[in-house]
Amino acid sequence: MKIIDKQLLDKTSEQAKQSPRLRMNYNFHERLDDPVNRLLNAMEPGSYIRPHRHLDPDKDEIFLLLRGKAVVFTFDDEGNITEKFLLDPMAGSYGAEIKPGVWHCLLVLERDTVVYEVKPGPFAPLDPNNMAPWSPEPNDEKGVKEYMNYLASKL
Prior knowledge:
- The chain has two helices and eight strands; from the N terminus they run αββββββββα.
- By secondary structure, the protein is of the alpha+beta class.
């Protein structure tokens, strides 16, 4: 049996705080070619999750918030926000499912935020065509900061 408890969330969150990207995965799937990828994604405020989609191969993605607070944004092909949903277990909003081909990202609002993610395997790095061309590259520090401030202004 694989257990998700406070100790595992704390350990993964501590690793996220030490990561330059301010996030850390803990995989439950034992092989990258597992037919279902299951993982914890511990994230800190300031972590940039670039808007992306899952096409070719098409993959649904499910987020269940275990603790903390984050907002899921979806976008049209021009980068306009089409939906936003606050993930906050204290407010009774726990998760979201994103369909294949839908541009999306998360904005982390609280320290020690952890989501449980599920998506079809096998794992494959995102093709560059699945990264939103209207969003800043992760190495564009100024652009990323401005973009994250823009998203925060839409809450």
